[in-house]
Design brief:
about 10% strand; mainly alpha; two-stranded antiparallel ribbon; 3-stranded antiparallel β-sheet; 11 helices; about 270 residues
């Protein structure tokens, strides 16, 4: 009996509500039905349909990310990213990042979208710094427009970036997005991250060698034992800082190994006298 009631709860509720309505309307029995009871019964009646509600719209506000919007973005991105990375350019780190985001998306798509947005901001900031675009602190949207204006990225890539960032922001701030759509946005964000990283790698590999000479092993050891003074600037803060460090070769290697993660750039590197 209990199982039957649970399986047919909607019909039981509906018939009960209908019976109460008839009794109340025609005074067939001394039963008092107040407005609160009616409201509660109405809520019970519509409750089976609540799970089907995915979109809430009030005026211009729409609390759902439409699947069609994501499909359109995917098509636009396919047209925007036409260049393929040079196989000789090392991109191992960015692939580790995008793989980690994909794994995160399987368990928590919204957090993965937040991670995509963070990584896009970091990568765009690096691209701005490397290409010597004006590095005044600015919003992410302004940064994208600056890179477009300086022809560092195409307007199509810029549009895709803005749309992906917007979708990430909307999902982070509570708009409903289906898991399948979230995974698609994550993948689109990853494609943009890999494309931007490739552009950075291209920029950093376009330097020219001024001179080159063969030196002895002893000379190499002498250089390795030297100390260096490195001066960096920390931008993107209200009060930028100039930092001077004295490092051994090993310390310098460690510093440069994680240099891409630092919010600072090198302005001077000199050898210290022994």
């Amino acid at each position: 009996m209990k199982k039957f009631l649970l399986q047919n709860l909607w019909w039981v509720t509906f018939l009960s509500a209908f019976a109460l309505l008839v009794i109340h309307s025609f005074n067939l029995a001394n039963i008092s039905v107040n407005s609160t009871s009616i409201v509660l019964l109405l809520i019970m009646l519509i409750s089976p349909f609540i799970i089907a509600i995915k979109k809430i719209k009030y005026g211009d506000f729409e609390a759902e990310i439409d699947s069609e919007e994501i499909k359109t973005l995917k098509l636009e991105l396919e047209k925007a990213i036409t260049s393929k990375p040079d196989e000789n350019i090392e991109q191992a780190e960015i692939f580790k990042t995008t793989d980690a985001i994909r794994k995160l998306a399987e368990s928590d798509p919204v957090i993965a979208l937040a991670k995509v947005r963070i990584e896009l901001e970091k990568t765009l900031t690096r691209l701005e710094r490397i290409t010597l675009v004006d590095t005044q602190p600015s919003s992410l949207g302004t940064l994208v427009r600056k890179l477009i204006n300086h022809e560092i990225i195409s307007s199509q890539v810029g549009k895709s970036l803005s749309n992906v960032i917007s979708l990430c922001n909307r999902a982070i701030h509570g708009e409903y997005i289906a898991k399948e759509d979230a995974l698609t946005v994550v993948e689109l964000g990853n494609e943009l991250l890999e494309d931007l990283d490739w552009r950075i790698a291209e920029q950093t590999n376009t330097h020219s060698i001024v001179s080159e000479e063969i030196i002895s092993p002893n000379k190499s050891n002498e250089y390795y034992k030297k100390r260096y003074q490195i001066t960096t600037i920390t931008p993107y803060v209200e009060n930028p800082k100039k930092i001077v460090r004295e490092l051994t070769q090993e310390q310098l290697d460690d510093f440069l190994d994680g240099y891409n993660e630092y919010a600072e750039f090198i302005v001077k590197l000199i050898e210290l006298p022994e």
